[in-house]
Amino acid sequence: MTLPGLDFSQAEPSQPQVLWIGCSDSSFEEIAALGLRADETIVLRNIGNIFLSDGPTCLSTGHYALHVVKVKHVVVCGHYGCALVKADSNVGLGDPWRSKLDILRSECGAKLNGLPADDRDRRFVELNVLAQMQVLAEIPEVAAAIHSRGLKIHGMVYNPTTNKVVRLEAEEPAAH
Ligand SMILES: [Zn+2]
C-alpha cells in the first residue's frame, strides 16, 4: 500500500474490497501501483472514469459491488495525460460523455482560467474525479452504505510518469 491513511488489507483473502472506477485509456497500471491485487478489486472502466448514475452498466456494477460483494471502498481514479478528459476540447466523444464533460468545463472554468495548457488538463482531470466522487455520494444506495457500514469513497489520479497515485482530498470542494 503506497498511500497513507488507506488500508485495503482487512478483508478476507481473495474477497474484493474495492470498486475501482478507472479510465479506459489509462495504462491500466494504476491498480498495481497502489499495491492492490486483481482479486481485491471489481473494476469498472469507461472513457473518462465517469460514473453515469443513469447508466445500466454503472448502476448494475455498482449494485453488485455494494450490495452483493459489499466492498468497503470505492476508488475513482483518473490519470494525468488522459487523451479523453481535456480541459479545452472533447476528442471525438459522443454522449453522454461529451455532455457530462462540457457541463463540468462550464462549471469549473474559473478554476482553469489562467493556467498553462498542461496544468489545465491536469487540473481538469482532478476536477473530474472530484465531480464523480460527488455523483457517487449523492446516489441513495451509496449514501446509505456510507452511513450504515462505513463505505469510503476515494479520489485518486495516477501519474504515469512517476508510477505514483496522487490522492485527492475529499474535503476539497468538488466541481459544482
Ligand atoms: Zn483517460
From TrEMBL:
Q: Does the keyword Metal-binding apply?
A: yes
Top-tier EC class: lyase
Q: Which reaction does it catalyse?
A: hydrogencarbonate + H(+) = CO2 + H2O
Q: What is this protein called?
A: Carbonic anhydrase
Q: Tell me the cofactors it needs.
A: Zn(2+)
Q: Where does Zn(2+) bind?
A: 23, 25, 79, 82
Q: Which SMART domains match?
A: Pro_CA (SM00947)
